[in-house]
C-alpha cells in the first residue's frame, strides 16, 4: 500500500532564504509526482509535474527533483518571498488516474 | 479558458439532510475526479469518471454518497443523509488524457461542507 509523507509539517523562514520541502513515498512504481500549492480557502494550484522517467523539473524559482529508487522528491524554492507562504502538497499517481496526497507542509515566509 | 468550477463554495446543513455538490470540469476534459479532505487528514480520492462512466469508485466511503456525470459533462456528488463526519472540503479535478505519465490534474476551488 502506497504511503506519502511530507516532512516537516510546518516551516517558517525569513524572506530571501531558500525553501526545501520533502516528500517521500513507499512504493516506487509511480506514474508521476505532482507538487501543488494551496492558499487558505482556495483550491489547489499545480506547480510542477515530474514524470516517472524524469529526474527533475524547473519553473522559474521552483525546482523539483525525483529519486524513484529511494522514494523521494524535493521541492526547492529559491529566494523565498512572503507571497510564497502557503501549504505545499505532493501527490503521486500510481495507478490509472487517482492521486495519493501527502498531508502537506505549511510554509510561512516572514518579511 | 475557464478552469474547473464548483458550486456551492460553502454549504452548512444539519445532520440527516441531503446536499448536492456540483463540478464543471474544463471543457473537453474527459476525466473527472472527486477528492475530499476531512479535518486534520490528507486529501483522499473518492472516484474517477471517464466521460459518463465510473472508472474507479474505490474511494467512496459508503452508499450515502452518489456521484453522477450527466452526458460526460458536469458531475454531481450527492450525500444523503449527511452525517457529522462528512464535513470537510470536497475537491473536483479534471484532466484531458490520463493514459500517460504526463497527466496533469487541474483542481477546482472546492466546496466546504459543514454538517451540524
Give an account of the 3D structure.
The complex is a heterodimer of chains A (111) and B (116). Chain A has 111 residues and is an all-beta fold. Chain A is built from no helices and 11 strands. In chain A, strands 2, 4, 5, 9, 10 and 11 form a 6-stranded mixed sheet that branches. In chain A, strand 7 (62-67) and strand 8 (72-77) form a beta hairpin. The model of chain A has no long low-confidence stretch (mean pLDDT 94). In chain B, strands 2, 4, 5, 6, 9, 10 and 11 form a 7-stranded mixed sheet that branches. A 4-stranded antiparallel sheet of chain B has the order 1-3-8-7, with no helix packed on it. The mean pLDDT of chain B is 93. Chain B contains no helices and 11 strands. Classes of the chains: A mainly beta (111), B mainly beta (116). Chain A binds chain B through residues 4, 31-32, 34, 36, 41-46, 49, 51-53, 89, 91, 93, 95-104, and chain B through 4, 31, 33, 35, 41-45, 48, 55-56, 59, 91, 93, 98-110, 112.
Structure characteristics:
heterodimer, A: 111 residues, mainly beta, 6-stranded mixed beta sheet, 5-stranded antiparallel beta sheet, 11 strands, globular, B: 116 residues, 7-stranded mixed beta sheet, 4-stranded antiparallel beta sheet
Amino acid at each position: 500500500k502506497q504511503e506519502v509523507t511530507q516532512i516537516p509539517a510546518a516551516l517558517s523562514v525569513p524572506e530571501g532564504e531558500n525553501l526545501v520541502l520533502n516528500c517521500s513515498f513507499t512504493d516506487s512504481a509511480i506514474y508521476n509526482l505532482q507538487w501543488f500549492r494551496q492558499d487558505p480557502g482556495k483550491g489547489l494550484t499545480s506547480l510542477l509535474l515530474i514524470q516517472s522517467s524524469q529526474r527533475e523539473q524547473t519553473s522559474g524559482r521552483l525546482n523539483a527533483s525525483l529519486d524513484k529508487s529511494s522514494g523521494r522528491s524535493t521541492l526547492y524554492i529559491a529566494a523565498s518571498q512572503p507571497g510564497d507562504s502557503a501549504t505545499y502538497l505532493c501527490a503521486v499517481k500510481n495507478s490509472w488516474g487517482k492521486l495519493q496526497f501527502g498531508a502537506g507542509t505549511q510554509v510561512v515566509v516572514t518579511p | 479558458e475557464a478552469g474547473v468550477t464548483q458550486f456551492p463554495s460553502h454549504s452548512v446543513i444539519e445532520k440527516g439532510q441531503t446536499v448536492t455538490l456540483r463540478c464543471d470540469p474544463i471543457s473537453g476534459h474527459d476525466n473527472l475526479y472527486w477528492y475530499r479532505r476531512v479535518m486534520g487528514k490528507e486529501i483522499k480520492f473518492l472516484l474517477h469518471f471517464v466521460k459518463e462512466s465510473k472508472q474507479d469508485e474505490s474511494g467512496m466511503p459508503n452508499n450515502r454518497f452518489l456521484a453522477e456525470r450527466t452526458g460526460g459533462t458536469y458531475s454531481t456528488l450527492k450525500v444523503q443523509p449527511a452525517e457529522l463526519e462528512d464535513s470537510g472540503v470536497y475537491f473536483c479535478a479534471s484532466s484531458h488524457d490520463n493514459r500517460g505519465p504526463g497527466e496533469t490534474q487541474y483542481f477546482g476551488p472546492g466546496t466546504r461542507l459543514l454538517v451540524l
